[in-house]
């Protein structure tokens, strides 16, 4: 078992996205914490492989992004679940902390 203290990754870089790899050496999944300063774009992208991902908003507000300029409001406690082949991204409107889980890991 492993306990991860998410409060210890509550750091921001002005005008940028900061990344913390929380679980990286697992055969089953990868967990990454991204902290986006207000107004930062995590560009829409996809991966050419099978698998799923989730993006959970830990704090802040913004939008989940998808294909064809899709924007879905996203706030604290919201969880997006998607095939990893499906285009996905995030745009923050406030300081925003997200937790991304990828299974299987890429």
Give an overview in words.
It is a single chain. The protein has strands at residues 17-23, 30-36, 41-45, 52-59, 61-65, 71-75, 79-83, 88-92, 96-103. It is built from no helices and nine strands. The chain starts with 16 loop residues before the first strand and ends with a strand. The chain is mainly β. The strands form two sheets. Strands 1-2-9-4-7 form a five-stranded antiparallel beta sheet, with no helix packed on it. Strands 3-8-5-6 form a four-stranded antiparallel beta sheet, with no helix packed on it. A hairpin with a 6-residue loop joins strand 1 and strand 2.
The first-to-last residue Cα distance is 22 Å
Envelope shape: globular
Low-pLDDT residue intervals, each spanning 5 or more residues: none
Biggest beta-sheet profile: 5 strands, antiparallel
Order of helices and strands: EEEEEEEEE
Q: Considering DSSP H and I runs of 4 or more, what fraction of the residues is helical?
A: under 10%
Instruction: Please tally the β strands and state the result.
Output: 9
Report mean pLDDT, rounded to a whole number: 96
Explain the layout of strands and helices.
Blueprint: E1 17-23, E2 30-36, E3 41-45, E4 52-59, E5 61-65, E6 71-75, E7 79-83, E8 88-92, E9 96-103
Antiparallel strand pairs: 1-2, 2-9, 3-8, 4-7, 4-9, 5-6, 5-8
Name its key features.
106 residues; mainly beta; 5-stranded antiparallel beta sheet
Structure described in brief:
With 106 residues, the chain is mainly beta. It has strands spanning 17-23, 30-36, 41-45, 52-59, 61-65, 71-75, 79-83, 88-92, 96-103.
